[in-house]
Design a protein that fits this description.
Blueprint (H helix, E strand, L loop, with lengths): L2 H24 L5 H9 L20 E4 L2 E3 L2 H14 L4 E5 L5 H9 L2 E6 L2 H13 L5 E5 L12 E6 L8 H5 L1 E11 L5 E8 L2 E9 L13
Parallel strand pairs: 3-4, 3-6, 4-5, 6-7
Antiparallel strand pairs: 1-2, 7-8, 8-9
Helix pairs in contact: 1-2
Length: 221
């Protein structure tokens, strides 16, 4: 990167990133390592170029294919729940999207398995993560509702799209005492965190949130 471009990047993104972190603190996010990571990740690289100037704002933004990157608070809240309650071994992410949440998960978990049903988004995220030197993520183009194709038990499952019920394939791959984070649309749109305890689920937290719907099948580019 040329020095002029680097200077522009620092001048224009550092104040916005600092403001984003300040807002997250005011909204109750307290995990310092998470805040430091989100403050240094180039979030503008994960959104459509036309919206890069809004990348650090408190709103979801388009990433293409009628999909969005979640607002910073939602990403931070989901991650903070995982850091508070989950073993940090293997995590399954349903909905790779831009790869932003994936990149954050990769910092904390030993292994990230991520599934994306939109082929173009899958390829973009895979290339983006590779270019950032992330080497503990396995990306799959497929139907996330079918779960991970190999019989791998997960310490956590995080779903980044709204659904009315939990796909059974995803609950079956979760270990006992594993953590599930998922948006649900009943009784009102919200995201929740649950722990698997035998045949029961213990709710550990909920928060209002907005997500695109969880869809079946795959879409080629």
């Amino acid at each position: 990167m040329r020095q002029h471009d680097l200077n522009w990047l620092v001048t224009h993104t550092e104040p916005k990133a600092s403001k984003m972190i300040h807002q997250l603190r005011e909204q109750g996010i307290t995990h310092e390592e998470l805040l430091a990571l989100m403050g240094t990740l180039p979030r503008h690289e994960f959104v459509e170029p036309a919206f890069s100037h809004l990348a650090y704002s408190a709103t979801p933004l388009p990433i293409g294919r009628n999909q969005t990157i979640s607002q910073p608070l939602t990403v931070a809240r989901m991650t903070e729940w995982l850091l508070a309650y989950s073993r940090l071994g293997r995590v399954l992410e349903i909905g790779t999207g831009s790869g932003y949440q994936t990149r954050i998960l990769a910092h904390f978990f030993n292994k990230v398995h991520t599934v994306e049903r939109q082929q173009s988004l899958h390829l973009q995220a895979k290339h983006r993560l590779f270019s950032m030197g992330v080497n503990n993520v396995e990306c799959l183009f497929g139907d996330g509702q079918a779960g991970w194709p190999n019989k791998v038990e997960m310490d956590a499952v995080i779903i980044t799209a709204m659904a009315s019920k939990i796909p059974l394939a995803l609950t079956h791959c979760l270990k006992q005492q594993g953590i599930l984070i998922m948006p649900i649309d009943h009784p009102s749109p919200q995201i929740g965190c649950w722990r698997k305890e035998g045949d029961r689920w213990k709710c550990l937290g909920t928060e209002a949130a907005s997500f695109v719907p969880l869809l079946e099948g795959i879409e080629h580019a």
